[in-house]
């Protein structure tokens, strides 16, 4: 008797995490300004699915165990060097490496939160607000918060546009998949 699952990869053309990453990058290129609801839904579901696809595809690689998302994101060593374009990230205080790690962790968590909100119809408790306009409440945010047309999500007082979230997640996976494929 079957349990209703099989261990075969999906047969609709995507076979590897790189296939999914390329899909995410195409979705980012096609974003409207601001992104349409369909674009947000598709890109965030793709971005979050990359985690499971990566863990499954590279299950025998030592570094894949670093990608654990429960309530916290554990980041692989040197991953901040994979992020080259932060596009007005709300970086705050600390060393640049610490702030990029916070931003990356936020974006991975927000991709999950947005994908799950799309699926479960409610926001995770860490998401403080979602709006068409960025929240700018002080001089620092005035200079370091993107104001381009986007949908903005706030987590722990830090603001990110969906376009920015998708871009940072794509940059992370481009670096991470490269490391895993070379192990």
Structural features, described:
It is a single chain. The model has no long low-confidence stretch (mean pLDDT 81). The protein has helices spanning 17-29, 37-57, 96-120, 139-144, 162-181; strands at residues 127-131, 152-155, 158-161. The protein has one domain (17-181). The protein is globular. It has 183 residues and is mostly helical. Strands 1-2-3 form a three-stranded antiparallel β-sheet.
Structural class: mainly alpha
Q: Which strand order do you get reading across the main beta sheet?
A: 1-2-3
Helix content: 40-55%
Ranges with pLDDT <50 over ≥5 residues? none
The portion of residues forming beta strands comes to: 5-15%
Q: What overall geometry do the principal axes of the alpha carbons give?
A: globular
Report the order of strands and helices.
HHHEHEEH
- The radius of gyration over CA amounts to 17 Å
Largest sheet: 3 strands, antiparallel
Number of continuous helical runs: 5
Q: Tell me the domain tally.
A: 1
Q: How many β-strands, per DSSP?
A: 3
Mean pLDDT: 81
Distance between the termini: 38 Å
